[in-house]
Amino acid sequence: xxxxxxxxxxxxxxxxxWIACSDSEDSVCGGDSDCPTDQVCQDGVCKLPSRVRCVGxxxxxxxxxxxxxxxxxxxxNNTNNVNNVNNQNNINNNTDMGADFPPxxxxxxxxxxxxxxxxxxxxxxxxxxAQVEVVFSxxxxxxxxNFQSLVLKNPAGQDVPAMVTYxxxxxxxxxxxxxxxxxxxxxRVVPLSTLRDPAGNSLLEPAPExxxxxxxNEPANHTAxxxxxxxxxxxxxxxxxxxxxxxxxxxxxxxxGDFTARNNKAAAQTSAPTANVYYSVVESKTHYFIVYALxxxxxxxxxxxxxxxxxxxLFVIDKATESFKLAEGLKVDSGNDTIFAWxxxxxDVSGTGQPQILDDFxxxxxxxxxxxxxxxxxxxxxxxxxxxxxxVPTGCFHSSQEFTDGPNAGVIxxxxxAQTYAMAVDNNGQKEMEYGLVPLNSLWARRTDVDNELLWxxxxxxxxxxxxxxxxxxxxxxxxxxxxxxxxxxxxxxxPPFAWLKLSGDPNQGQWLFDPAYIMTVRYNxxxxxxxxxxxxxxxxxxxxxxxxxxxxxxx
Length: 556
Hints:
Blueprint (H helix, E strand, L loop, with lengths): L2 H20 L17 E3 L2 E3 L17 E3 L2 E3 L6 H15 L20 E5 L4 E4 L5 E5 L13 E4 L8 E6 L4 E6 L8 E6 L18 E5 L5 H10 L2 E6 L26 H5 L7 E9 L2 E15 L2 E15 L4 E9 L6 E7 L5 E2 L6 E4 L10 E4 L7 E2 L15 H5 L4 E7 L9 E3 L2 E10 L1 H4 L14 E3 L18 E3 L28 H4 L1 H8 E2 L8 E4 L4 E2 L13
Parallel strand pairs: 6-12, 13-21, 14-25, 18-20, 23-25
Antiparallel strand pairs: 1-2, 3-4, 5-7, 7-10, 8-11, 9-10, 11-12, 13-23, 14-15, 14-29, 15-16, 16-17, 17-18, 19-28, 21-22, 24-25, 26-27, 29-30
């Protein structure tokens, strides 16, 4: 191409491009009138409305106003027009204003509020297929009511996948999880400030939240088994009178009427708790594993009162014969836990050397089918009543004279109706009373109550070992367990069953409760047929009952 022709072509292209840009975005402007009719002027540049959308004036900057969902730079000569547009939007969308709302009335500056949440805060035994409803104080912008602004949190703190809808007639948002919730679990409803009314006002903060707890799916036969094998407890008590009697009676963590842990020591000195024992049942293809967990508001060592104490025992029951095979008791400490075990003479279980103590006791020691468990005052170790075998675990040494006739009192507790110590009766010179049975699931459901004014100090993620089964994996909800009850004391022994050690000194906590079918084979040899595969384990999310591929797990 000749030079003159090339220069002419370039000038023509530049001119065409300049003409095209005058009708495109990013051209310089002083107001909307300088832009094409389908654009607005923002920050001195023409832009398509899709680039500057908004919900309300707070979404705009530099003095812009939100008009029909778009941020517009407003000059003095068209401010009234913008006010009229916004006022008309308020008339159409805000039911509080009515059809006769005057055009020149100031815009809505009132933040919407949450009026109610269902299930309400603290609700228990909520169905796993329940839906959540949140009622607002006024009409909301439907575009802001979604699964990102109205969130349901699971025990691990993750967002639960859900569908969210909004009813403008009742100002009500409804959240429906896409899958059933987990049983015995705590969930938290969280409304966020991204929820807004039609005028763009965000939700009033702080917005109320709600915690609720789903119901357990405990099999009926497990409840019956727990009642059938519940032990007779020989409870040593330091004093029969005054507040000290309350230090040595097992009870619930909410014996004082609240689920605040840090006031339990004080409450034990001013109120009389009823005797209660937590229980939990896990079922393998060959055995039942029944845990009885005892909580005490105070652990007294010498003259020192420490807030909280736990102890517990695990029973292994043969499914085929429904016979008692083993009892493994614990002395719970702030660090390592001490394990010791007993078995009846008729049991074919033998030890593997871990722990060193596995004593026999005569079958005649059973009170019917009830294991005789001795709990010494103060340290509250789960011992056996008799003194059979060559060794006596530390803290378990006792004699019948010490229990009944010595300077320290004792009471025999049998399963039944929860009673206070004042309700104990005299039976041939020996005090006797009843204790109630409470599902451990009721405490497990509250594992997310982590706060200084609630129950727990913090949560820890459960780590299955040796490729043990679990419903949960890295891509789904992990199992979290609480490590210790809240207390202001320097020394506290409020470590619940969820945190008890697999082995003394072993860092893998939680195995004792979550995976007993595995842990028992670490320490004991079972002469009978034994399977560590589960038919039902609520902690690991396993329920194979009625599954044709698991004939050993019949339908309930």
